Structures are given as structure tokens and as C-alpha cells.
């Protein structure tokens, strides 16, 4: 199971890298979102995917799942979500202001401030 | 007062939340931001004195004992950095009153500044590796807001790259934490440190170390990963640039120092890699600083040089080298803030950042000119001023570790640093006087007083080096002996 998850995470990251290397702002942002999905899957897998009961308090539990990776990806997902939405807004403003969504055309130095 | 380590995080957090509710009441925003950052400064000073007098303070949040919950750890190194950060943010908030402009002030500038303070102080204080990531995101989010605030074309273009780079490095950070967790099964930095010492396949640990180096190197702008910094930092207005240049790169440096000293203290490969990259950073930084004729770019490349010098001192792993690195780190935070503030005034006076278009401002504004002169000498490390002692110790550490080339390079770089900042002085401040009519005069107290305080602090930091020696030495001992940190956190 871990191997399958690793492959899925790897595929997601590969797709993300492909998208991030493209020229359109929107594709880049979708790429970063995919990247964070891949990374979260990997983080989740790193704890080991064991089956068991809920991680309840108490020392007598016979089997329990590791609660930590779940807590970690929950935090990481929220952060990634926030950053992605902010990133979309910035891209939209950049498109409005610069009149292009192509990063090639966004190059250059102009002193306008 | 067991809750002491949390105050430098909690006070600005509460203030930032409160400030979000009335963005248009600029007077109230200014007042609250200044007062609460002043309170943060007092709290962190008290914390520093307590930590110095007694010992490392730890706080287990939610009373979960150390390896299980999130622990805040204030050892002397982190307390020193928290105090410096609070001091710089306090000065820069006052400096911003006149410099940032009303439009930006009305769009959540002060809340963003306070959130940045929360994130940076938190990153310096936390003892949990995942929590470090969370605090990184807090100050990164604030920095995204600050870099794009105002929305000029240049800012939008550069902030897109800045956000992209940081999103990528955050993803790598999460990967590195995942690997570390799968190897050690813990997130508490002291606990990881204790467990990693006995883990056998060193190759695996080296991979994790290199990943951490990439992540924090991107934040700290070390050699191959600095490419995004010069243009991104030049885009926002000066007070924001000063915050970024003085604080954000230093969080990367701190994190490298902390993780390397705790997780990989014996790993020769990582430290020689770090030392090599530090030297290359210095070389590239010097080339940039000498080549540019733009005041912003010159100082931005000087930030890179300083990062290289500090990391080299740290990588020597000798007592003198590490102590020098701590000395130089704090010196550099203060003096970079001061230099950015001063060139901000210069830009305010002349209306341009191009050195070839300005000259002779000292006739009209002598105080700005002389303050700049002192700050520039201090940056280059002319003896009684503050840059000298740190560099001396770093070079001594380099000789002790028999890194003669590295020490020589640092000596040579000092001369070129002096040249690069004197270039600004000779062309922009000295020279044929011209008549300037700035819209806002840089002599107004809210701009001048914080700058004088910062420069004065830099001078006193140099003259008071003897008194500060015990702090720095304690910090160096702490870094070189991770057992102390482990014992303090795990209470063994």
C-alpha cells in the first residue's frame, strides 16, 4: 500500500512540475496546488499506513492508528488552501494590471514606483 | 512567569487581530501598532534577561509533556534573536508612519507587519519542527501581503515569482519533515536530536540534511538559490524592503544553524557543503554589490554577503567561529535595517534609486549623510564599530578549523563591501551639491528618530561587545553542545 501511495505522490509531483514550468499563470497555480497534494500524500504515507482503532487516550489500547500524520496533513492542507487562494487573487490582479497571463511577457524592468 | 516565552508571540498576535477590524482609522492603527510592538520589545527583553540569569525556558503548550506536545523553547540564542527582531520591527513601524504612504497604511499594512512579527518570533522560539513550518507560513503569508501591497506593476510581477518560489520551498519543507518523521517518529526537535544520534544509515540522514539546506537556503538566499531575491526585494517600498532584508533572510540562517547543530552535529559532509556554499554566496554577493549602480541593489547584495559570512562562521564548528556567527548575525540584523532606512531617506530626497542621478545630498541633509557614513563603516567592520568583533571571531574560527581560503575570502570581501557602500557615500551623498525638494522631508521626527536609535544601537553594540560577550559565548556553547538543549526540553 505504501508503494502505491508513493507512486501516486510521485505522479502528482511530476504533473505539478510540468505545469509549473509552463508559461500561463493559471497553469502554474494549478501546478502548485497539485504539488501540495502530492506532498501531503507523501507526508501521510511517511507515518506508515497501518490499520487499527481510533487513537484514543489510554494505555490499554491494543491497536491504534498514528494520529500525528493526520494532524500534520490537516494543518498543511489548510495552509496550502490559503496560499493557493491568495495566489489566485495575486495572479488575477497581475493579469488586470499587466494585461497578460504569459510569464514570458511579464519580464523586464520598469521603474514605475 | 512560566509563560514567558509565549509573550513575544502572543502580544503581536492579539494586536494584529484587533487591527484587522478598523483598517481605515489610520491614527488608531499607528498608535496600536507602535504601542504593542513596544510592549513586545519589553517582553522579549525581560525574557532575554531571565534566560541569561537562569537557564533555558521551555513552555509545553497545553501541558502536554515534551516529546508529545508542541514545546516553545527560549534558549539564549533564540531569546537574543527575538529581542533583536522586536526591536527592529518597533523601529520600522515608527519609521513607516511617514514613509509608507497613506494608501498602503489603509490596506492592512500594520496588521501584516504584526503578523510578520508573530511568525518570525514564533519561528525563533518554537521547539517543534512542524510548528516551525507553520510559523514560516505565518510570516510568509504576511510577507506576501506586504510585497504586493500597493499593487504597482513591478510589485505584481515580482510578487508572483516570490510567492511561487516560497510555495515550492514550503512543499520541499513538508517533504523534509515527512522524511524526518519516518526516520525518527518524532517532531520535537530535542527528541529528534536525541534519536538521530543513534540512527545508522548516515546516507539517509544526509539526504534529509541537504533537503533542509535547500529549504532554508531558499529563504536565506544562499548561493545557487538566491536568484529570486534581488528583484523581489527591490519591488516593494523601503520600509517593507527593510523588514525583509533585516529579518526574513535571517530566519533562514537561524533555521539552518538550529537544525544543523541539533540534527546533524557530526555530519562532516553537510558542514563542508555548507561552508563551500557560504563562500560562494560571499563571492556572488560581492560581485553584485560592486557591479550595481542602484542603491537598493547594492544593499540587497550586501544582505547576501552577510548571510555567507554568518554561515561560514557557523560551519567552522569551532567555539570562536560559532560565537562570531551569533555576534555577526545580530549585528547584521540591526545594521541592515539601519542601512535600508538610510537609503530610503536618500531615495526620498532625490526621488531616484539610481546612484548616477544623485549627488551632494549632504549639504542639505547633513544628518542623513553622517548617519549613513557611520552605518557604512559599521557594516564593513571598522574597529570599534559593531561589525568588527563578529568578523574577527569568525576569521579566528576559520583559522582554527584550518579553512585558510575561506578566512582570506572573508577578509577580502570586507574591503569590497567597504567599497560598495562607500560608492553610495561618495556618489550620492558627497560630491557636487544639488538642490532637492522632497515631498516629505526626511528630517521629520518620525523618520529620523527610529533611524538614529537603530544606528546608535549598532554603535553601542560595538562598544558594548565586552558586556555582550557572556551572552554570545553562552549561545555558542548551546549550539555546539546539543545535549544541553535536549536536557532542557526533555527535562532529564
TrEMBL record, chain A:
It holds the Pfam family Oxidored_q2. The keyword Signal does not apply. One of its GO terms (cellular component) is plasma membrane. InterPro entries: CPA3_antiporter_subunitC (IPR050601), NUOK/Mnh_C1-like (IPR039428). Keywords: Cell membrane, Membrane, Transmembrane, Transmembrane helix. Gene3D superfamilies: 1.10.287.3510. The keyword Ubl conjugation does not apply. The chain crosses the membrane at residues 6-21, 28-49, 69-92. It is a multi-pass membrane protein. It is found in: Cell membrane. Belongs to the CPA3 antiporters (TC 2.A.63) subunit C family. NCBIfam families: PRK08600.1, PRK09094.1, PRK12660.1. This is Na(+)/H(+) antiporter subunit C. It comes from Mangrovibacillus cuniculi.
UniProtKB/TrEMBL annotation, chain B:
The keyword Glycoprotein does not apply. The chain crosses the membrane at residues 6-22, 31-49, 69-95, 107-124, 130-150, 162-182, 202-226, 238-257, 269-292, 299-316, 328-349, 370-394, 406-426, 447-464. Keywords: Antiport, Cell membrane, Membrane, Transmembrane, Transmembrane helix, Transport. InterPro entries: CPA3_Na-H_Antiporter_D, NADH_UbQ_OxRdtase, ND/Mrp_TM. Belongs to the CPA3 antiporters (TC 2.A.63) subunit D family. It comes from Mangrovibacillus cuniculi. It comes from the Bacteria. It is found in: Cell membrane; Membrane. GO terms for biological process: ATP synthesis coupled electron transport. It is a multi-pass membrane protein. The lineage of its organism: Bacteria, Bacillati, Bacillota, Bacilli, Bacillales. Pfam families: Proton_antipo_M. Residues 128-415 form the NADH:quinone oxidoreductase/Mrp antiporter transmembrane domain. Its main location: membrane. This is Na+/H+ antiporter subunit D. GO terms for molecular function: antiporter activity; NADH dehydrogenase (ubiquinone) activity. One of its GO terms (cellular component) is plasma membrane.
Amino acid at each position: 500500500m505504501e508503494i502505491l501511495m508513493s507512486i501516486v505522490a510521485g505522479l502528482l509531483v511530476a504533473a505539478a512540475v510540468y505545469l509549473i514550468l509552463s508559461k500561463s499563470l493559471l497553469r502554474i497555480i494549478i501546478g502548485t496546488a497539485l504539488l501540495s497534494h502530492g506532498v501531503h500524500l507523501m507526508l501521510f504515507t511517511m507515518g506508515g499506513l497501518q490499520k487499527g482503532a481510533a487513537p484514543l487516550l489510554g494505555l490499554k489500547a491494543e491497536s491504534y492508528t498514528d494520529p500525528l500524520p493526520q494532524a500534520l496533513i490537516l494543518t498543511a492542507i489548510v495552509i496550502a488552501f490559503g496560499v493557493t487562494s491568495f495566489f489566485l487573487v495575486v495572479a488575477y490582479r497581475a493579469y488586470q494590471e499587466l494585461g497578460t497571463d504569459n510569464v514570458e511577457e511579464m519580464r523586464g524592468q520598469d521603474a514605475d514606483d | 512567569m512560566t509563560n514567558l516565552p509565549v509573550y513575544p508571540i502572543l502580544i503581536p498576535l492579539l494586536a494584529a487581530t484587533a487591527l484587522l477590524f478598523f483598517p481605515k482609522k489610520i491614527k488608531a492603527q499607528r498608535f496600536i501598532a507602535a504601542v504593542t510592538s513596544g510592549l513586545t520589545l519589553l517582553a522579549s527583553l525581560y525574557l532575554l534577561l531571565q534566560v541569561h540569569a537562569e537557564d533555558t525556558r521551555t513552555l509545553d503548550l497545553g501541558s502536554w509533556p515534551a516529546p508529545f506536545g508542541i514545546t516553545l523553547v527560549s534558549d539564549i540564542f533564540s531569546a537574543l534573536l527575538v529581542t533583536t527582531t522586536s526591536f527592529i520591527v518597533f523601529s520600522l513601524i515608527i519609521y513607516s508612519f511617514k514613509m509608507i504612504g497613506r494608501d498602503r497604511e489603509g490596506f492592512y499594512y500594520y496588521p501584516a507587519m504584526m503578523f510578520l512579527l508573530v511568525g518570525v518570533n514564533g519561528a525563533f522560539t518554537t521547539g517543534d519542527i512542524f510548528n516551525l513550518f507553520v510559523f514560516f507560513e505565518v510570516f510568509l503569508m504576511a510577507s506576501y501581503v506586504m510585497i504586493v501591497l500597493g499593487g504597482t506593476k513591478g510589485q505584481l510581477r515580482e510578487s508572483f515569482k516570490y510567492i511561487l518560489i516560497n510555495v515550492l520551498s514550503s512543499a520541499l519543507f513538508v517533504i523534509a519533515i515527512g522524511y524526518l518523521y519516518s526516520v525518527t517518529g518524532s517532531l520535537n526537535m530535542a527528541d529528534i536530536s536525541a534519536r538521530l544520534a543513534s540512527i545508522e544509515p548516515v546516507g539517509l540522514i544526509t539526504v534529509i540534511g541537504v533537503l533542509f539546506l535547500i529549504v532554508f537556503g531558499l529563504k536565506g538566499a544562499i548561493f545557487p538559490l538566491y536568484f529570486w531575491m534581488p528583484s523581489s526585494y527591490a519591488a516593494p517600498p523601503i520600509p517593507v524592503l527593510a523588514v525583509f532584508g533585516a529579518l526574513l533572510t535571517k530566519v533562514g540562517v537561524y533555521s539552518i544553524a538550529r537544525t544543523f547543530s541539533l540534527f546533524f552535529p557530526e555530519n562532516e559532509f553537510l558542514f563542508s557543503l555548507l561552508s563551500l556554499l557560504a563562500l560562494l554566496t560571499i563571492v556572488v554577493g560581492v560581485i553584485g554589490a560592486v557591479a550595481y549602480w542602484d542603491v537598493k541593489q547594492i544593499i540587497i547584495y550586501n544582505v547576501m554577503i552577510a548571510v555567507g559570512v554568518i554561515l561560514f562562521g557557523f560551519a567552522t564548528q569551532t567555539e570562536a567561529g560559532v560565537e562570531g556567527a551569533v555576534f555577526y548575525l545580530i549585528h547584521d540584523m540591526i545594521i541592515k535595517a539601519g542601512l535600508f532606512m538610510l537609503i530610503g531617506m536618500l531615495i526620498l530626497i532625490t526621488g531616484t534609486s539610481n546612484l548616477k542621478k544623485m549627488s551632494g545630498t549632504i549639504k542639505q541633509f547633513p544628518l542623513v549623510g553622517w548617519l549613513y557614513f557611520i552605518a557604512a563603516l559599521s557594516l564593513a567592520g571598522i574597529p570599534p564599530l559593531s561589525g568588527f568583533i563578529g568578523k574577527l571571531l569568525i576569521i579566528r574560527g576559520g583559522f582554527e578549523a584550518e579553512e585558510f581560503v575561506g578566512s582570506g575570502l572573508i577578509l577580502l570581501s570586507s574591503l569590497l563591501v567597504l567599497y560598495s557602500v562607500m560608492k553610495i557615500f561618495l556618489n550620492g551623498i558627497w560630491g557636487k551639491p544639488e538642490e532637492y525638494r522632497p515631498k516629505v522631508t526626511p528630517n521629520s521626527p518620525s523618520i529620523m528618530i527610529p533611524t538614529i536609535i537603530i544606528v546608535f544601537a549598532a554603535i553601542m553594540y560595538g562598544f558594548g561587545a565586552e558586556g555582550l560577550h557572556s551572552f554570545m559565548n553562552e549561545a555558542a556553547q548551546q549550539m555546539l553542545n546539543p545535549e544541553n538543549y535536549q536536557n532542557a526540553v526533555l527535562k532529564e
